[in-house]
Specification:
2 copies of one chain form a homodimer. By secondary structure, chain A is an alpha/beta fold. Chain A has 3 domains: 133 residues, Response regulator (Rossmann fold), CATH 3.40.50; 122 residues, Beta-Lactamase; 176 residues, Orthogonal Bundle (Hypothetical protein af1432), CATH 1.10.3210.10. Chain A contains 19 helices and 10 strands. The first copy, chain A, has a 5-stranded parallel sheet with strand order 2-1-3-4-5, with helices on both faces. In chain A, strand 3, helix 4 and strand 4 form a beta-alpha-beta unit. In chain A, helix 7 runs antiparallel to helix 10. Bound molecules: fe (ii) ion (2 copies). The site of one fe (ii) ion has 5 residues of chain A, from loops. Chains A, B: It holds the Pfam family HD_5. Chains A, B: This is DUF3369 domain-containing protein.
Amino acid sequence: MDDDILIIDDDEQVHDSAIQSWKVLIVDDESEVHRITKVTLSQFRFDGKSITFLHAYSASEARDILKQETDIALVLLDVVMETDDAGLQVVRYIREQLGNQSVRIVLRTGQPGQAPEDDVVESYDINDYKDKTELTSQKLRTLIRASLRSYRDICSLQRNKRGLEKVIQASKGIFEKTALDTFVEGALEQLTALLELEDTTIYNIKHAYELKNTELEMLHSTASDKTETDDLQQHPILQLAIKDKTNIYQESEVVIYCKNPRHNLIFHIEGTQQLSEVDTHLLNLFTENIVVALENIRLNEVIEDNQKEIMYRLGEVVESRSKESGSHVKRVANYTALLARLNGMDNEQVETLKQASPLHDIGKVGIPDAVLNKPAKLDAGEWTIMQTHAKLGYDMLYDSDIPLLQTGAAIAMYHHEKWDGTGYPNGLRGEDIPIEGRLTALADVFDALGSRRCYKEPWGIDSIMELINSESGKHFDPKLVQILNENLDLFLEIKQKYVD
Amino acid sequence: MDDDILIIDDDEQVHDSAIQSWKVLIVDDESEVHRITKVTLSQFRFDGKSITFLHAYSASEARDILKQETDIALVLLDVVMETDDAGLQVVRYIREQLGNQSVRIVLRTGQPGQAPEDDVVESYDINDYKDKTELTSQKLRTLIRASLRSYRDICSLQRNKRGLEKVIQASKGIFEKTALDTFVEGALEQLTALLELEDTTIYNIKHAYELKNTELEMLHSTASDKTETDDLQQHPILQLAIKDKTNIYQESEVVIYCKNPRHNLIFHIEGTQQLSEVDTHLLNLFTENIVVALENIRLNEVIEDNQKEIMYRLGEVVESRSKESGSHVKRVANYTALLARLNGMDNEQVETLKQASPLHDIGKVGIPDAVLNKPAKLDAGEWTIMQTHAKLGYDMLYDSDIPLLQTGAAIAMYHHEKWDGTGYPNGLRGEDIPIEGRLTALADVFDALGSRRCYKEPWGIDSIMELINSESGKHFDPKLVQILNENLDLFLEIKQKYVD
Ligand SMILES: [Fe+2]
Ligand SMILES: [Fe+2]
């Protein structure tokens, strides 16, 4: 027997060698048939691969093997075994029970009378019908070759179909994302699914980068070691993708390149198998969809940016009457958002607060110049008028249906309440003051103390913190004051970034 | 010869009958082989369909037929004809030149010596190899049946694959849309492509409806007759889809149902063929994508709505200082948009103008109370101050990157210029005044005259038009005044809709 042929009846080994050979199952109750078939095909190769034989000596054994081994290419199937139609029952089992449409089935019968050819071929989903007597070694080789060719073509079509279904699934997955970060994570996930890496996640590493100018910024990574990822950015395959603005498919890694006027994303997946032409076609299809989805995200971002800017302008227009500095609303917005985030609020809440915060003094539009811009201390009557700006702002916004303006209304109303109940307009106390008000109160005062006003010079940070700490539990929510103390450097970064 | 069998050598007829039969091409230089094959298979049926034979008596004839007829299921192919390997050349032609991988090819040779079986089966992509002598009528029937079965399975996989590719293409097409109207048109187009109706567009009618409360509103239709479409809305299949909230696939029509919290879309396509299970699976897949795309559109609309409302609020906050009525900015926005549309501007320009128009008096924030709200006529100095609101507004907005605020800046700057050059701040004349200014000027005055102000009662429409017409070519762009005159009813509808 030739060394090329693997005659393996041991399950373990079969599994290992399966990748490099065609599985052919011989089902026959005569062991001589098994032997002759193997000998005849000892030199046989198709598409550069040899045959691995599996052996069943009864219909029941055949069923067990077929259930286990889902990648059998061909079954050479005797008809009469335990019963006169045992083989025919196996055909039904394969096509109907197992739903296996791809395996090729050839009936080989020694007693044609038991299974009239026309009836059998018509009623059973088989691919050929042979008298054992007519199967010369020449005819057997032709039969095997034609069957394996057919199996290969059907498998390739099926793989392709499954791949396309995955692309559809994957695309749906990414089109459901509307923010860049979840989109990037989703795209990596779907790429992994497309590359069928689910089972080997231990061995592969996925990264997503955004190219900013010439720098690669890591957006997401499954690598455990951070220093390791720093080196990877210099990886030649990434540089190649960037240079050629295209996907790169190499032996064990894949780079997907997607660009639009705002984003330049690069996905890098290592530890893949060698990709077929079909695989790369599917990845190209999916890449086109990533690009469309990324464009949708860009459009969303543009609209969001517009909204943010409009809100700032709205705040600034109002502030312009009190001759306050242009960057006051931006700083207060950023302080408020930072406090909210450190206080454990979720991204959406933080973003809404940040965008709504410029509206805190919108009610000042209704305060007369004489009060608003009086260079001296306000008298009691003027002070009463001034205080109405909180409720006035609320009245301008509360009837809106949109959450952003409702939050704006709350901020306007409550940003002058104090923790100890001595604030206005309602004299609320402690946690009765909505969080929007407590956050903005601290952010607003922190900024006002540090800024130049017509009546005062900007304070130094030590004096500011001394006052704020002394007002903890009086003017301000003590928990928020603590957050400010513990993260002062982050707040000072904002102050630095938005100088007047 | 049996009546069931169609022996047709005429091209026209072949085409008509093709749908109901399997095409088998016999290629042989002996006419006796043709005759015997036909006689043997005279009663043959597979999957309820008979065989239509095509006949070629040389390799060259075979090539011509194969090029014409792309849906041949099986070729029974002689080897030795014009040349010793004429048949083998036909195999290459089919697989390589025509790229036809689905047709089954069986070599039938009378001179096996000319084409050694192992070599031929290995080197040529054929599906079986027979000596003419071994082909008994029984064996021929088995061969044909197995071949047709294989052809049917491969075609079904290929159709499925093409269908999935179309779903991917179609989905990309709809995800590229960001507005409801283009989305609806695109979805209908892609549905048509999926249903392969391109060739029969004359016979089918497509409609898209939006369900509002219980009323179907037609969004798009390819029907030529408008009254015809009115009846269709009562069509039971539409009512069924609405009731069951699901797609309906019937013999010759398809209803696709898609719903999200804002939109309830129904696509109705008539004149389809009976759909297979595969087709309905693909349509279901595509429907899922339509739903995702529709959700993206809804999110866009929400953001757009927010932006519109924020812009109105911004305008209203400013107006609140001059104690003007709340609906003034909405009316001016709508008048401006209507004038722009009637003046031939595109949708995007109209929308931008509409949203930016509330900012026309934003500069008034910088005008002191004493001037802005003076109950008497302004003196010369006060008037000069008042006029600065145009430039002040421009200064607040011009440095923004976003088109909406840039348009706002232009509107603020130019809405008090006059056609004859007597306006402010720059005394521009005629078409030197940017269109944003000319449009808003007319809309603003048209509204102001019709509204109650602290110093005047609202005018009647006749007096308003008398004044505006007398100012045509003086204060106002005469072309815009003409548009206003010709479409006065549309403007009065807006006045009615946004009463104070
Ligand atoms: Fe305030
Ligand atoms: Fe004005």
